């Protein structure tokens, strides 16, 4: 199995966290997101413990909200004692509404509006990760009006290509994010930030991409960032207190993806960072990492019901489900690979190659091409798409006026609860006049 929270029952049904996916779908309706609370908590603890061991007690993981944002995820993060990063008024409001301690929130984004800046300050967001000179000025002005001194990090672009999807490569010099070291903009914004009377510059942030399967990318970005930090100390006497190296460790979507030992990789980054700090005569800054996908991805599963099976002789077979690009647009966006299983026929041979597609009126509505399923697959069978905890619910839409899916959390104590209810047709028209 692609993940150890997936097993098969004696009667051939797919089990998720030991629970029958067939029974879950019958109880809560189709299609359905299901999430594993114990896995989410275990990943958060793994990051927190590994980071403290590698970087010292001041280290803190920040859950990347964009991977999957709803109230319960912030309650879990709060209980586990980690921070979060947020990128919009919506994520800020959700975290605050859930009672998350906002001093542990870091506000990202390359175009924070005046309204978002004010909201973040009103609810006590701890840090702004400032992306540009324009934003620096806006945050300073807002802090003056609020009568506060706002802690900030500056987003720096180290100029690294992570060799991942182009769409999620964020560390290149010409990225829309951050201030490039190579062009001199990073040094310039640092000097400007130090002059702002209502801002407290604490350090720097970088993020170089996603789906990274080893620590080489972190080694390279750390070396570039530490050299920059040393240069800022030499030029301006600025001592960096925090260094946020972003997120990006990958997860297994298919059997071809490698398994990552997160603790060992973080240990390696810690050793590399300490050695580099010593060589540059720098104090070790408090380190932040921003895991998102690697915390929630394999804690999620999407269940669908098969509608039609269409054979085109000499060409291909389509198996259509009752969801698709509205609840998972990642294949349409990135060509993302997924593992698809027939949840109620797990012991039957997967002897038919087909394209699993959705019900949306769009030719690009493909869940996954070239999937092997039992040739007996027919209407009312149940398909499970694994590793859908990240960037599925958070990127879902109402395309074709189709309601969004609910999330059922399988709780760490063996229970279950609906943490996001299923949208209704009434929900779809509630804002129409």
Descriptive account of the structure:
This protein is α/β, with parallel strands linked by helices. The protein has helices at 21-28, 37-55, 71-80, 89-97, 114-122, 133-146, 185-195, 216-236, 262-279, 293-296, 330-334, 425-429, and strands spanning 6-8, 14-16, 19-20, 32-36, 60-64, 83-86, 105-107, 127-130, 150-157, 179-180, 199-205, 242-244, 286-289, 300-312, 316-321, 340-342, 352-357, 366-373, 382-386, 407-410, 416-420. Strands 4, 14, 15, 16, 17, 18, 19, 20 and 21 form a nine-stranded mixed β-sheet that branches. Strands 5-6-7-8-9-11-12-13 form an eight-stranded parallel β-barrel, surrounded by five helices. A three-stranded antiparallel β-sheet has the order 1-2-3. A hairpin with a 3-residue loop joins strand 14 and strand 15 (316-321).
